[in-house]
């Protein structure tokens, strides 16, 4: 048994939703496009899962955050896909792909063939077992990647209000979930191996601001160590975590955010991989001309830095999804993807944005004891990255613009003294 489509999107996450919208903007014919997703719901804005979804009052629930509301676009409900003649094949895992024959095989045994495939399989959360720690399948240990994980986290959180949580990992999931747990009246201890939170992005000075803010909300930090084992009771619940430095932390629940791995396994040995993802060109086309890749799974050339990068952020998933559809449907009118990396987060009453690259020398500016501060990164004489906490819409637009221009910087001290006004003047 089998079905055939002109275009198939494999994966039903952020990139799939934005690609679907772009296909309809470009008047894809009814019956030509199919989206296959392991998830049982239509594409949604994944960032909501660690923020609005975890709020104690009036939490965000589907259908409110289906794509593409995150970019102030239409909300694509299952009805929308139906009305636009797009086949949504939900709750269906693809278990193998044959790029030579242009076919996908689903776990249900169906073969789906395509003329053009867009791989948008995203990534999976790394498990503690991959670092040699067992027991993370206990009912009160939570990961967070999809809606099922989020529902489980909400249930566990509600069952231990007033209790103690340990958050493993000091990255995005760790920081955002710790904030949500506190808002839900749970006492939080964060444990991570580095000397500071958000080591992939923050400077020590920036990290220290957020750590102090979290401490003021009651969060405790145990840094420079990792988990060595769980203590589990007779019901299979984790009751304490043991750390490699010898500490034992009693817990009612655990949240783990220790990074991700892109879902490339279906294509290993068939497509060229780089930086852990599927290598694509500026049209998001892989080493096989019928296969494109977008989102967390794609390693694409970032023009601004003349380098191939794999980004794990929603803005790049949205924009490269739109670009790939333009490149497929109007190849002669579509140039190479030209993208300035953009990351953001919102925690408690705080909110920051970052553009570009965090390499080179750092110049901090603003009031680190107040509400608005930031940093520029200057590499080889050019401004390549900008961070801002607590900015206005105009200020964020200014740091985005200045970063995209990569201006020459001769005097770091002058940049420091001008601070945000430097970006505002560009
Ligand atoms: P995404 O993960 O969205 O979708 C992949 C889809 O493929 C899923 O539906 C999956 O089930 C499906 N799939 C995979 N393999 C399959 C198979 N074999 N068969 C069928 N289906 C398959 N970023 C940011 O910039 N700001 C933010 O605030 C946040 N917040 C945030 C919170 C949380 C909880 C997470 C987990 C992530 C974020 N992110 C973020 C990151 C952002 O959500 C992420 O970069 C995008 O979702 C990537 O979009 P993709 O479409 O590439 O993958
Ligand atoms: P991450 O890469 O941001 O952070 C991983 C963290 O895990 C590291 O900072 C480190 O502290 C910790 N770590 C690594 N190995 C460890 C170990 N053995 N034991 C304990 N800690 C260890 O990954 P994440 O926080 O898991 O986030 C997952 C994905 O979701 C990422 O792609 C991220 O970009 C995305 N996300 C993004 C946002 C955002 O952009 N605002 C929000 C949530 C999630």
UniProtKB/TrEMBL annotation:
The keyword Ribonucleoprotein does not apply. Keywords: FAD, Flavoprotein, Membrane, NAD, Oxidoreductase, Redox-active center, Transmembrane, Transmembrane helix. Coiled coil: none annotated. Residues 340-423 form the Monodehydroascorbate reductase 3-like C-terminal domain. Its cofactor is FAD. InterPro entries: FAD-oxidoreductase/Apoptosis, FAD/NAD-bd_sf, FAD/NAD-binding_dom, FAD/NAD-linked_Rdtase_dimer_sf, MDHAR3-like_C. Pfam families: MDHAR3-like_C (PF21791), Pyr_redox_2 (PF07992). The keyword Transmembrane helix applies. It is an enzyme of class 1 (oxidoreductase). Gene3D superfamilies: 3.30.390.30, FAD/NAD(P)-binding domain. Residues 7-319 form the FAD/NAD(P)-binding domain. Its EC number is 1.6.5.4. Belongs to the FAD-dependent oxidoreductase family. This is monodehydroascorbate reductase (NADH).
């Amino acid at each position: 048994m089998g079905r055939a489509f002109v275009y198939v999107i494999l994966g039903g996450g952020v990139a799939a939703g934005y690609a679907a919208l772009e296909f309809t903007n470009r008047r894809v014919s009814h019956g030509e496009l199919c989206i296959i997703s392991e998830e049982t719901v239509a594409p949604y804005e994944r960032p909501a899962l660690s923020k609005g979804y975890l709020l104690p009052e009036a939490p965000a629930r589907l259908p409110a955050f289906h794509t593409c509301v995150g970019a102030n676009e239409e909300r694509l409900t299952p009805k929308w896909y139906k009305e636009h003649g797009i086949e949504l094949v939900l709750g269906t895992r693809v278990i193998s792909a044959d790029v030579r024959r242009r076919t996908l095989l689903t776990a249900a045994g169906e073969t789906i063939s395509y003329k053009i495939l867009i791989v948008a399989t995203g990534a999976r959360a790394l498990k503690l077992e991959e670092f040699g720690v067992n027991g993370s399948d206990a009912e009160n240990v939570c990961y967070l990647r999809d809606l099922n994980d989020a529902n489980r986290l909400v249930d566990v959180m509600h069952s231990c209000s007033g209790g103690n949580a340990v958050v493993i990992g000091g990255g995005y999931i760790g920081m955002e979930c710790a904030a949500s747990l506190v808002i839900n009246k749970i006492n939080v201890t964060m444990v991570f191996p580095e000397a500071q939170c958000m080591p992939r992005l923050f400077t020590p000075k920036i990290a220290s601001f957020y750590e102090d803010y979290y401490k003021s909300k009651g969060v405790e930090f145990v840094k420079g160590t990792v988990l060595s084992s769980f203590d589990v009771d007779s019901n299979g619940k984790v009751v304490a975590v043991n750390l490699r430095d010898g500490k034992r932390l009693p817990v009612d629940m655990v949240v783990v955010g220790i990074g991700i791995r892109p879902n490339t396994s279906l294509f290993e040995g068939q497509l060229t991989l780089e930086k852990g993802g599927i290598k694509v060109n500026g049209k998001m086309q892989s080493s096989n001309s019928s296969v494109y890749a977008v989102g967390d799974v794609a390693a694409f050339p970032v023009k601004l830095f003349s380098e191939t990068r794999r980004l794990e952020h929603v803005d790049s998933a949205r924009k490269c999804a739109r670009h790939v559809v333009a490149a497929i449907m109007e190849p002669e009118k579509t140039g190479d993807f030209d993208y300035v990396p953009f990351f953001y987060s919102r925690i408690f009453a705080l909110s920051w944005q970052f553009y570009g690259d965090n390499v080179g020398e750092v110049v901090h500016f603003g009031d680190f004891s107040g509400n608005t501060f930031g940093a520029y990164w200057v590499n080889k004489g050019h401004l390549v990255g900008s961070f801002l906490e607590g900015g206005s819409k105009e200020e964020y637009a200014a740091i985005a613009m200045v970063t995209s221009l990569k201006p020459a910087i001769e005097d770091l001290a002058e940049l420091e003294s001008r601070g945000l006004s430097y970006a505002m003047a560009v």
